[in-house]
Every structure is written in C-alpha cells, then in structure tokens.
Amino acid sequence: MKSKEKIEALRHELREHNHNYYVLDNPTISDYEFDVKLKELHALEEKHPEFYDSTSPTLRVGGDITKNFKTIVHEHRMYSLANSYSKEDLLDWEKRIQRILGDAEVLFTCELKYDGASISLTYEEGRLVRAVTRGDGFQGDEVSTNIKTIRSVPLQLKGDYPSKFDIRGEIILPLDGFAKMNQERLAAGEDAYMNPRNTASGSLKLQDSALVAQRPLDCLLYGIVGADTGISSQFQMLEKAREWGFKVPTIAQLCKTTDEVMAFVEHWDVHRHDLPYETDGVVIKVNSLQHQEELGYTAKSPRWALAYKFKAEQVSTILNEITYQVGRTGAITPVANLEPVLFAGTMVKRASLHNADQIEKLDIREGDTVFVEKGGEIIPKIIGVDFSKRPSESQPTQYITHCPECGTKLLRTEGDAKHYCTDFYGCPTQITGRIQHFISRKAMDIEGLGGETVELLFKEGLIRNYADLYILTKEQVMPLERMAEKSAENLVNGVSESVNIPFERVLFALGIRFVGETVAKKLAKAYKNIDALIATSVEELIAVDEIGDRIAHSVVEFFQNERNLENVERLKGYGLQFQLSADKLLNQTEILKGKTFVVSGVFETISRNELKKMIEDNGGRVGSSISSKTAYLVAGDKMGPSKRTKAESLGVPIISEQDFLDMVD
Ligand code: AMP
Ligand code: ZN
Hints:
Blueprint: H1 3-23, H2 31-47, E1 71-73, E2 83-84, H3 87-101, E3 108-114, E4 117-124, E5 127-133, E6 139-141, H4 144-147, E7 164-172, H5 175-187, H6 196-204, H7 209-214, E8 218-225, H8 234-243, E9 253-255, H9 258-271, E10 279-286, H10 289-295, E11 305-309, E12 313-326, E13 332-343, E14 346-352, H11 356-362, E15 369-374, E16 381-385, E17 410-411, E18 420-421, H12 428-439, H13 451-459, H14 474-477, H15 485-497, H16 503-509, H17 517-527, H18 530-534, H19 538-543, H20 549-560, H21 562-573, H22 582-590, E19 596-600, H23 608-617, E20 621-623, E21 632-635, H24 641-650, E22 654-656, H25 657-664
Parallel strand pairs: 2-11, 19-20, 19-21, 21-22
Antiparallel strand pairs: 1-6, 3-9, 3-10, 4-5, 4-7, 7-8, 10-11, 12-13, 12-15, 13-14, 15-16, 17-18
The site of zinc ion has 8 residues, from loops.
C-alpha cells in the first residue's frame, strides 16, 4: 500500500475506534492495540508532512499553545433559556405557545440540562473547523485547539451531513473523572477543584492543549443551527446528530402532553444522581422546527424552549461513618452517618448511599466533607465530595463483603444494583424484616402488633417466622417489656382477626422478592389460588400480562424453598385466605353477563389484551366491530375516528378505561 493510502486507512480506523470508545462507550479493541496503531500513524505522518490533515486522530493529544484566544462573532447568536421552577410555570408557558400557534398539536422534546460550559462547533464539509465558547452570546473565544483534544468531539463526520452548520453543546466533566483528577491533585499536594462545571469551563481556556488532552472532558450535543437539513423536528435532529458521530444522550424523550413532560421532570429530578455527569434541570423544547420558527425569540431566549430547574438544596457536612442496612429481602443499603446538620428545617443525620457503585463513582470516604442534597425524595442523598477538605490519611472505602448482621458472604448477581445476604432463613434482620412486612398496614394489617414488638418476640425466641404469630398465646406475650394484659389480648386478637384478609394481600404479605402490591393483585387474579401459583412455571408466569422475567423467576424460586412451602401450609392450617374470595370469583363470572364490548385504542393502566380478558373473566363478550348489539365501546387513546362516529350513530355508549374498571371492581 502507498504511504498516503496507509495513512488514510489508519486515520479512518482510529476515528472509528475513538467513536466506539468515547461516543458509544463500546470499545472494540484494547487500549494497547489502539496506542500501537496511533504510534504507527504518528510515525508515518512525521515522515510525510505533505499529507497533513487537521482532523487526524494524532492531533488529539494536543501540544499547541494558545497565547491569546481570538474573539469570534457567532454567526448565529447563542441564546439563554427562560427558567421555570414549577408545574404552573410550565402550564403558563404552554398556554403562551398555544396562543401563538393556534390549535395546532404541539409536541415537546425533553432533554436533560447538562451542567458544564456551552460550546458552538462549526463544521464544513464534515470537518470541524472552529469551536467557540458562548461568551456573551454574541461573541465568544475561539478554543478550537483545546476542543480538538476531546475525544468524543468528532473531527470528521460520517453519513449525510449538511455541507455547513453549527452545532451547540455542553462541555462537561463526568463525575468519576472529576473525582480521579482530584485524587491526583491531592496526592501531588495541590488544592482540589470545587466542582465539575467550573473545572470544565476553566479547562477550555488553558493555554497548553496537552493539559486539556489529559482531562477526561466530554461533549454532549443538543442543537443544530444554520443548516438546511430537511430535518423537521428537534427529536429527529438529535437522531441525525447521533448518526453523524456526535455524542447525544439517548435520554431525550418526545412528549405529547405537559403531564408527560412533568413525569419526565419528576423522574430525572430523582434519578439524575444515577447519571455519570451533573445536570441542573430539564430543557423542554417545542418539537416541530416549523413551530419553533413561528414562535421565534425574545430579547434573551427562544420562546420555544424552557429550562425546568431542579430544586437543589445543598449543604455540606462531615461523613462520620458508613454503615450497612440489611433489608427484608437481604438487599444491602449503605448509609452515610453524618455530622448532624440543619437542612430545610430539619436536622439531617443520615443519607442514603444507594449502592457500592455510587460510593465508588463519587469516591466517597469516611471523614470526607460531603455535599448533601434533598430533592423530591424524603431521604437526602450525597451528591459529591468536597475534595479540598479530604483528610490526608483518608483511605478509599472498602465495601463490605459479608452481611453485617449474620456474617454470610454477600452476593451480587449481574444486573442487580445491590449486594444481597443470601441466608434467607438464618439472617436475623431478614427474619424480623419479613415478619414486620407481613404485619404491615398494606399487608396483613395486624392491629396491636408493631415492629418493635416483633423484634422483641424474636429475641425472646417466641417467633422465628410469620406463621409462628398464629400460635402465640396471651400468656406468652404478657411478660414482655411494656406489655400488659390488655395489650397482650389485643395482639392475640389482632392476629386471629387477620385470617380474613383477602388472598391478594396475603400473597403480598408473604414477602416474595419483587412481588409488590400490584403484582400480588395480578397474580391472585390470574391464578385464583395458591396451589395453582405453587404449581406454575416461569414460562406460564411470563405469559401473564405485565409479569416479567425477574418477577417470574423470583416467584418460582420462592415456592421451590421447602421452608416457604411449609410456612404456607401452616398458614393455610390457621385459616388464612389462600384463594380469591367467593364474591370475587362470582363477580368474575356474572357481572358482565350477556353484554358485548368493543375495545379500541391504547390504554393507560392495562394492556388491551388484559382488558379483553377482564371482560371475559367477568362473563362478558368481546366483539370485533360495533353493531346495534354492542353494549359498550371502551375507548382508549388514539381510537380510530370512524369507530366513534359509528358508535355515536348507533347510540352505543362510549366509556373510558376508568369507567370500565369501575364496572368490574
Ligand atoms: P442558562 O445559562 O441558564 O441561560 O441556560 C442556557 C444554557 O443551558 C445554554 O447555553 C446551554 O449551554 C445549556 N444547556 C445544557 N443542556 C442543554 C440542552 N439539552 N438544550 C439546550 N441548552 C442546554
Ligand atoms: Zn445476613
């Protein structure tokens, strides 16, 4: 092969590897192999300076010095975003938009608001020609040399890109990279950086691009301007940018209603701490580019976009100790025991650390000063470490390997977020946790018995599992701490009254992993009694609507355990309900007798098949087309207009999903 072709081939190959590694997060060769190829290319380029190319992967390592950053006027202004903090703000915004657009259907694309430094990249003929900071929105600093060292910024695009355009994004510093940078700085006796955002934006203005190249910066893109692309929507634009090689988070979601937008906001308000980088809100954009154009801009920001800021209340305090909690299913949750601090009106002493990954990602250690944040959740979370205050003798956190309650070796199965203690019947915390769950309000709702008494009864050796509750006597209970004749009587009565609790709640009370209230109801309805459920298989379970693999395996596993079966047998013997109550079974055959239903559209809380099954289970019939014999048309979302017209003309009542559910419940 000629040198020129060899160089071209290597450049092409290395670009692909960069894309796989830094954009797709899915490398296909080892770092070592990559380095070998990069060195080979470097050597060839040195020998043949005539084939210089400003987009060569060898230029990623930096080296060029920028003494003075050139001021560049943005060809298209970089706007700010209007802020909002509540659902009311969002609804007001929607109203304003709708007033301008008339009754056109408006869709929204929701993206996360990445917290870093804004950047505008200019591409010509698929090559990065310029990178400029936002500056004052009208003009910024050219930082191309530094940006080129960021591996996820493509220097050369792929696919059907337009010949010239600008793309906007955010330069960010992922949390794990930030933690690592700070570890190194502290080890070298330097001060730690305060937060990822400032460090990211500071990096852009470093004079030595080789230093920038060493920082684990990333670039997330969200908008194209100034191109005639044939693209018609924001959502499609994100997809296109992804195809051309840009890193565009796939979290973006197309929403039809403001309720869907709010659900997205609320979800990410809680889950943003699971992301590898910081975000400070959601950006909501009118999806249609045509609508965007009609809406235009105010003096400062587009009318077609809105930033919904997460509420961030933060304090910092010292993390004294990490302890570990064992849940009733054996799941281990690390807990941060904090130096108490006043926070949003309450004294905070503890914070959840979620799991081992979270501790590792943020590099959280005992003795650290940590930032604590209270979002939508009740339990505050640790969202970062103030590395500048880390004590010099600090050691990385070693996650526990054995159960703190019973000493059993912990297990973490692939795909599980948490470690588990597997000694289901030997681990005291799991035993009492399970009994406490059993008696809880939404399960057996046993009056006169509380969580502390369960612990006491267990400690005194009076109960070892929930079945034992049913053989407790007043005489056994009375001598216990804080018990008197009356309270002992109440307890025993409460237990014996619980035998009337319906099957679906008994099923929930058993404490099968992943079987919550709703799933228990589904299973009770589908199987009707415990023996059918015990005899079932994973395949059969999965065939039940909304029962997935994880739940199916857990149910089967539960009933494979001899001791679980033994407990169920005992509970049966004490008279607990292990089949659907007679009136429910009866309802299932009678209530809709002689009525034909037509079902159309998409439903919210149940699938169409499940709805049909419910009709049949309750004695009704499902028809395929509307006639004068149709009793009801159950209308979901996106129902065809012709069905509606026909029903109306024949006088067939049109009912909603909820109307139907009320009918059979
Ligand atoms: P602000 O600086 O608060 O006015 O917010 C505007 C800035 O948010 C823009 O300059 C962007 O750099 C930044 N931003 C982060 N994520 C996004 C996104 N997904 N869409 C639009 N802007 C974003
Ligand atoms: Zn244990």
